[in-house]
Every structure is written in C-alpha cells, then in structure tokens.
Amino acid sequence: MLKYGQKIEVKIDKIITGGDGIAKYENIVVMVPYAVPKDKLLVEITEIKRNYARGKIVSILSPSPNRIVPPCPIHYTLTSNPCFYCGGCDFQMIKYEKQLEFKTKIVQDFFDVPIKSILPAPNPFGYRNKVQMPIGGSSKKVFMGFFHPQSHRIVDVRNCLLETQLANKIISSVRDLINEYKIQPYNEDANRGVLRHIILRQSMAFNEVMLIFVSKTNFISNLREITGKITKKFPEIVSIYHNINFQRTNVIFGDKSFKIFGKDTIREKIGNVVFEISPTSFFQVNTAQAAKLYDVIKNFANLKGTENIIDVYSGCGGITLYLAPYCKSIKGIEEVASAVADAIRNARINNIRNTYFIRGNADYTLRKMDFTKYNIVILDPPRAGCSEDVIKVLLRLKPQKIIYTSCNPATLARDVKILSQSYKINEIQPVDMFPQTSHIECVVSLVCIS
Q1: CB-based contact 87:148 (threshold 8 Å)
Q2: Beta carbons within 8 Å of 172's beta carbon, 6+ residues apart
C-alpha cells in the first residue's frame, strides 16, 4: 500500500492526455508530470486517490532515449526552483518528433479504429500569435510571465521560446517601462493594485501588433507616455487598448475596452481569408497550423460546391468563412454576441455572401433547424464537448455527415461514442496546434449509417 512521501522506483510506460507519464507500481497506476516513456525514475508519492496515485520525480535513474535537455532555462528540470518554474510548456524535455508520436498514441488510445499520424507544425518554436502575461511583484519591481503549474505564483519570463522574437522584445520593453514609471501591479490575494495583465496580439501575415493593458482601475498613470515610447521603438505596434476589469476573478478581460492608440483592429490571414481581430476576439494562436486544421475539415467535408453546411459553435467565423468559397451556403451558430459581430464583419471584408450567422444557444437553435436543407454539420465546441441536447438533436435529425473538431480527446471520444448509434467514423486526423505542450487538436469525420 502506497503512502504519502514514499519513494518508489518506476518505469514510465506512456503519456496520457493532460501530459503526465504513467507507470504501474504493485498494480497501482502512478501518474508523474514531466516524465518521458522509458524513463526509469525515483518518484516521491504526493497524492493518493482510490484508483491512482501521483508522484514527483526525485531523480532520473535511467533517462529515456527520447529525453532531451529543455532548451528553455525556466522549463521544469530536477534542478529547477520547486516553486518557480514555468507552467506554460510541459513537453520541452521530449524530442519534437517523439512529441508527435506520443500525441498520436494519446488520441489512438481513445478510439478502436486506426487514426492518422498527427500533422506536425513547420515551426515547433516561435509560433504563438498571442501572449497573455499576468503582472506581479510590486511598484518597486514589477515582473511579468506565466503561472507556476497548479498555482497563481507568477514566474518572471524574459524570453518565451513559443513567442516570436518581436513579441519577446516588445514584452521586455513594456516590462522596463512599467518599472520605469513604477506602475503598481495587481495583487490577487488583496484585490488591490492597478495593472493585471499585458496581452500582445500579432499578425503573422501583415506583421501588425496590438497591445492591451488590463487594469483593475479606470486610470493607469503614465499610460500615454508609455504608449508614445513603445510605439516609437516598435512601429509594428499599430493598436493599443486599455481594458478595465474591476472583478475579483480569474477571467482576464473586463467588459470595457478603450482604444488609446492606432487602429481598431489588426489583420490576419488564413488561406485566402483576411480576418480583423479586435482585443477580445477569439483566434487560433498558431496561424500556420490553423490553415492545416481548416484544410483537414475542408477535405473531410469533400465539398463539391453544392453543400449547405451548419457550423455549430462558430465563434468569430474562422471555419465558416474558410469553407464558404467551397460550398453553396454555410450557417454559423454562436452564443457570444461579440464573436457574431466579428464574423459578420469579416464576411463583409472578404466579400463572402453565402454565410449567415445566428446569435443563439446551440441547444435551442439546432432544434429549430430544418435539417432536410443541410448536408453537413461542423462541430467545434469548448473543451467540455457538446451538450447532451446538441447530441440528441443530431441523433434525431441525422445530417448526412458530421465533422467534429476538438481540443480535448477525452470529451471528443465520449461524444463520438454516443453518436455511434447512428454514425460511423470515417477518418480521424490529429493536428499539432501547440508544439512543446501536451495539448492536441483533433478532427473526426462521421458518416450517417441509419
């Protein structure tokens, strides 16, 4: 029987969804963060549940041949400060080609049918077009970075390898200016202070940058001076906003955003579609891989130009607008009003006239649809997956084809299993949207059989 604090020797068998390595010790599953298959480890037990235990690496007795030294100096290693290593990445200790192999296996474990190998990213570093950094420290010394795993302790990050060089330079200069003007950071525990987050959004296609300062207060001292200095140093910055979030919450953005410099939006391009991105718009963080993801959806749909499509959870219309030139019509359903407004605006910018966007709850809106007019349903729900009502409507109305995109293999497999009452899996294609992390995007093509 395992005990808290007990040290045991294990060999890691595989990695599971969420990124932990797993091993068995006396028929008990032991989950170990930052472990690599074929590692032989000395592990200290930190948590015991009825069906499994968790542990942390004490020492690596024999490293996996697939283990490497993480290129990031603040990624977890055995010599890391136990309270201050970054929680942004969890796979940098694995060779990239092996990351792809392990991610493919993670998805395969959820399905009985063969899946395709995950599509690799052309750039496994420097791919993110969005940076969200919480602010910590004090007015004497402000730091910016990411949270330590499973905590709200901010790790000061000076050069994130997942961000572009330009983004890192801009963030570094912003940090220096915040310190120069001694702007007080927000203290989450005391619910006091001023500056909460810095968000940077970058267009890979047009090399435009938007900065957003999120504060707890209506006023940020010297923000005009900071704006003048940072835009003079970096002409790529074409838009700066001040967002106000009064709430005591983990949600980053508040309801009010005020432009203080430049353009209302920045532009990005996926395929032939140009998107205008506002401060709070959702947009895929890996532009290059978003194009691959949308191509997978298009190819699974096998469009001939005669199809009428419903895109459920359509967000700001990324998939909807990308598919529009290849079908007769496509209707997006989205609950968030600002996302619908973004989608409509982007359709107008691209002169796309065969798209329609409905603001509404998917459960309620789908029940009112006449499915005899539609051939294909696209699903791209949040991590929690589709609601029971959406699944029930699809099983009752039985569109010819469903293409389900998910960032969570577990909820994807759950929903596909329920849909298998009337559908069979045609193809499954994972896409590596987030290299150096355990996150996986996956597309499943389902065909109606009853």
Answers
A1: yes
A2: 158, 159
DSSP calls for 5-46 = T-EEEEE--EE-TTS-EEEEETTEEEEETT--TT-EEEEEEE
Residue 357 near residue 331, CB atoms below 8 Å? yes
C-beta neighbour count of 333 within 10 angstroms:
25
**What number of other Cβ atoms are within 10 A of residue 258's Cβ?**
11
Structure tokens at 205: 């296609």
48 closest CA partner among 25, 67, 68 = 25
Q: Nearest 5°: phi and psi at 226?
A: -60, -40
Contact of 449 with 401, CB cutoff 8 Å = no
144 membership: H or E segment, kind and range = strand 142-147
In 10 A of CB 93, how many CB atoms? 24
pLDDT tens-digit readout, 45-85: 999 998 999 999 999 999 999 999 999 999 998 877 766 78
Indicate which residues carry an active-site annotation: 407
β-partners of residue 96 are none
Domains of the chain: 7-67 (2.40.50.140), 130-270 (2.40.50.1070), 286-448 (3.40.50.150)
Residue type, 201: R
CB-neighbour burial class of residue 166 (10 A; exposed 0-12, middle 13-18, buried 19+): middle
User: Helix, strand, or coil here: 79?
Assistant: coil
* C-alpha span between 354 and 308 (Å, rounded): 10
Q: Which of 350, 298, 294, 356 is nearest to 327 (CA)?
A: 298
Structure tokens belonging to residue 122: 């052309």
What percent of the chain shows pLDDT beyond 70?
99
Residue-wise pLDDT for 411-429, tens only, equals 999 999 999 999 999 999 9
Structure tokens at 167: 């983004």
Q: Are 42 and 35 in contact (CB under 8 A)?
A: no
